[in-house]
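Entries read chain and fold; for instance:
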Amino acid sequence: MRNRIAALGVVLAVSTVAAGGAAVVLALTTPADSAPQAAAAGAMTDAATAAYPTAQDHCYIEGMIPHHEQALELSGLVLEATGVRDRTRALAEFIVADQAAEIDTMRAWQTAWHGATPAAGSAGGHQGHGSVQAVAGTIATGCDEHAHTSMKGMATAEQLAALDAADGAAADRMFLELMIAHHEGALEMAESAVREGSNAFVRTSGKHVLVEQEREIAAMTALLAEVP
C-alpha cells in the first residue's frame, strides 16, 4: 500500500499558489458602500442591510476548503498509482492546480475579513446562523457542524484506503467514480452559495465551481466510459 504522505507530496509538487494577497481578495469582496474600515471606526449597520458576509457565506467557505482538500487527496493517490492512463493523470494534475489555488484564495478571504474586523466586535457562539446577515464588525462563527454536515460527495475512509491500494485500470476507474461523486457534491454546495450567499467573492467562487466542475464531470464521464 502506498504511503498517503507520499501522495500528498505529489499534490504539493504540482499545486500552484493563487495570485494576489489578502488585500487583493478583500478589495474584491468589499462593496463600495460598506468598506471594512467603516466597521473599524465603530459604524454599526442594521443587521438586515449589513454588507458583511452572512453565515451562509462563511459556512460555504469553511465547508468548501476541506471539500477541496479531499479532492487534492484523491488526486494525489491516483497520481501515485502505477498504470493509470495519461489523460486521467493530466486531469488529476489539473484538479490539484485549480483547487489548491482556490483553497489559497478562500483562506486569504478569511484572513482579510478577520483582519478587517475589530476584535471587540467578534461574534461568539452560533451568532449569524440563518438568513440574517451578521452585524457590521462581526464575523459569523459556529459553522463547524453546519459546514461538515453540508459537505456532499465526500469519499469515506474505506474508499480512500481502497484507492490508495489500487493500481492500473482499477485505480483509474475508482478515482473517476469517486471524483465525479465528489464534484457533484461540490455543485450542490456551490448552487446554495450562489443562491443564498450575499458576498461578492463567495458568489463568484460558487459560480467558478459550477462552471469548472460541470466541465470536469463531463470529461471524467467520458474517460470513465473508456476505462478498459
The two ends are 23 Å apart (CA to CA). The first helix runs from residue 4 to 14. The chain has nine helices and no strands.
